[in-house]
Structure formats: C-alpha cells, structure tokens
Amino acid sequence: MKLQSIAQGFIELILPIECGGCGEAGSRLCRKCRQVWEAPPQRVSTRIQQHIPVYSLGAYGGARAKTILSMKERGRLDLTQHVGAVLRAAIVNMQFHGHVPEAIALVPAPTTRRNERLRGGDPVHLACEASGIPSAQILRTSAAARDSADLSAAERKMNISGSIELLGMIDGPIVLVDDVITTGATLAASVAVLQSAGMNVVAALGFSHA
Ligand SMILES: [Zn+2]
C-alpha cells in the first residue's frame, strides 16, 4: 500500500490531476461531480427480493458511474476518500431517520481476492475504511466463481451463493455496502451467508443502483 502511494505520487508529478467523475482537469472530483454524490440515500427495490431494506446513493449513470469506474477500472483509489466521506454522511442520514441503529458496522460486499490484487485494492472496502465507521471485510467470493456478466438473474444467484466465503464474525448490527446494486443477487447471497452464521444484517447500501 505504501509503495503504491509513492507510485501514485510520481504519477501525479507527471500527469495532471483530473476529475474522476467527468475528466475535467484541476481536481480529483470537481464541484459539479461532488454535487452528484451529495444526494441522500433512497430506498430501492431489486429484482431478487431482499429480506432487508436496500438503499442507494443514486441511479447508476453520469458522473456517479464514471467515478465508480475510475475507482474500479482505472486505479483511482484516491477517490475512495471522497466516497468514504459520502458513505459516512449517508449512514448518519439513515441513523437520523431511524433506518439503522446507532452502533453499526459496515461489511463490504464480497470481491474475489484475485480481482482485488489486480486492481490494487477493493474500492468498496477502502471507502468503508475511509468512512471512519467500523468495518470489516469478512466476505469473499472464491476465485472459482464464474464471471456473472452473461448469466441470468436466477443463474447468478445460484452461482454467487455457493461461492461466498465467510472470513470472520461481527457482533451487532451490520450494513452491507456495495458499489453497484443490480439484480440484488450478490446482496441476497451475502445476507444469507451472514444470517446463517447468526449475524444481524439490518440494511444494505449501494453507491448506486442500476
Ligand atoms: Zn467532474
């Protein structure tokens, strides 16, 4: 991680800083794109029914989508600091409205270890850490899981639920966090794994929903 931030520093000496949401030069996330990320969390429904309420910070598209892709695909892990702050504000908002209890822990949705290594870190995990809210990466998708892009919703659910590994336990209420909520297959499978181990999942929160 240290070496990586040193490398990042060198890259910034060479390349101008550009906005992770629109590409405009001059800042990591410009004022206009920051505004996109300021929307309060909203309740959303997924194709696969969930046993917990699901919230999203906004529809997947525009500056929000580009910011997420910048983190996931383009190595812009510096953006996880900003998204972490947004995540914290969203949780405080949900606590204020009584949607989640005061003392919660965040659990990032599972990612494969191999993917994470390739990308230099899981952005969802890093954003959870940057939020300052207690968090633990206790779910992982085993490397054997098939790429789910070309599977139907039902196939996805089958594919995912058999491949999530539990790496630890958390006492107290949990909010599951993911970057893009689509069919809800990953969420449903993750909740099932946590609940079957006796853990208390109270809500899920996505950076976006599609
Ligand atoms: Zn921008």
Automatic annotation (TrEMBL):
- Give the protein name, as stated in the record: DNA utilization protein GntX
What is the originating organism of this protein?
Corynebacterium gerontici
The record ties this protein, via Gene3D superfamilies, to:
3.40.50.2020
Record-stated family: Belongs to the ComF/GntX family.
